[in-house]
DNA sequence: TCTGCCTTTTGAATCGTTTCATAAATACGT
DNA sequence: ACGTATTTATGAAACGATTCAAAAGGCAGA
């Protein structure tokens, strides 16, 4: 028993299919009496519009696709929420997918979204955006880059100044007296990681006598942080960094867990620790985590705004919004009392 | 300039549309030479299949819809990940939406998914499922309930024994010497909350002299927990509970933040605290959080399995998987050393 | 009653893909 | 070389909603 179609509704109500469609889309073109007949038929048959058919006819879907780097990271969850809210106001809905920092997964989802003929796409790209995203442009899809600036001629973008954020974090460590800094993050090929590291390098370069070490990780989650932490605590005291800057709060959380398990070490006494993103849990970590705050929800909202703008007027020049990150100092870098 | 269609590809390659379709779907029915011609045309035109048209023809989409209670809760993020992985193995993809405990939002997304003619739907329902979800069944949609048992004749379901979980949590508080227990959770109309509370009531009933107080919250997030915590610390010592059981770890995190800010109170000395879900951050809270662990990813995987089963054989009886939750003891209820 | 104008209704055509019965081309055995 | 299998290729029909030109219906004024 296949679902009811407009044809079925029309037959039941004793009207033409066009009339049913009008009831659905332009009620004021239809007399009250007819509307009522049609509505009754719809309810009796449990009719539900077939979105595929609508889309086929319309040429485009009414949804917006969003490819996130990691849905399990509360930072991205916040970005997504901001986008969803903004889109809801504008009457579109957003569908999400998580690439988990995997270029192949990203490509799969982008393909999927393109096949669905989404209105537009918000992407925080994994690696080099050149290949796939450029192709999207060629196909006429509107793309807004999240957390990354691409070719300013091609895409609008919403990003945060990661170099500055890295600079803030490392400067803070140095200013609180740390001289052997370690940067923990997953691979230089990740733009965010590379930028934050670059900022840290800049800060360190301004202070002679301060060293910076790069500790790459496979992933950017709590577990990876825990592993780095375990490696750290096994080091001799002479080789131990006294300040650790993690590319995000998940890593920092993991590092913190490991370091605290080593009974001889204390945070921030022996190691100062700072993360990135300022997720909700940072303030309630065993030792409240200093971090770099980014306006997550606003990033999402802004991305939707730029997308809408570009859909409205495809000729308009691309806009590039860059937010400034902000240092949040808590106990893990030596503040006297936990600041919630 | 509209996107290229199979017709365009066929013209360019000098073959019939049916042949292009065969190249795409049944390559072994097409000679190597023809395949090559068609492939070249596809690349030259940048042809991308129109999913709406495919779906219209097929009658059903190839995706599975999933409506979560709260995408910002790491527990649900894990469930989603489990489902996504399992679906990927089976060759389908999953689209997510977050109802945020709002019945209207839930209804909107369910409608959206039904219009998209998804293969099936995984729903962790907000309130009474009777109305909307029953309608879906009437329309022939396969629905698997997450984290909730509905009418066993109508739906398969994957759930966790929340009553038992609540019982475990409250029993643990009582066994570690607490006598004035408070339960923090958002509204009895939320099934999960109600069940966990019921379990707690059962545990308390077994121990004369132990009291249980219900502290409802508006939401189930960190902020709501913080507010409850602030209200608690303003109480006179006599009215202060000595054991607090929160309906999830987000609430517990918030309560913890507030209590620790009140300099006179300590966890677990003055107040023991236990949460629910055992999210990644529980172990790295200021005071590591005791919690009730649920097999999140496995819940997601199992839901997909049940859905696939039911799609395969719609006549088969509905299956109901109930996982047992597990107590995880850490510092917030008095363990000697933080257990990570 | 007829005319002109406005509102309401009609139904064929369209979107892009897949399917399938049929036709064409090719291979094989004698 | 001929008929029979087998492999390839064809293109009209179908999916379900929307659109739009045209028809029908309603109403006021002459």
Automatic annotation (TrEMBL), chains A, B:
Keywords: DNA-binding, Transcription, Transcription regulation. SUPFAM superfamilies: lambda repressor-like DNA-binding domains, Periplasmic binding protein-like I. The keyword DNA-binding applies. Residues 4-58 form the HTH lacI-type domain. One of its GO terms (molecular function) is DNA binding. This is LacI family DNA-binding transcriptional regulator. It comes from the Bacteria. It comes from Arthrobacter ginkgonis.
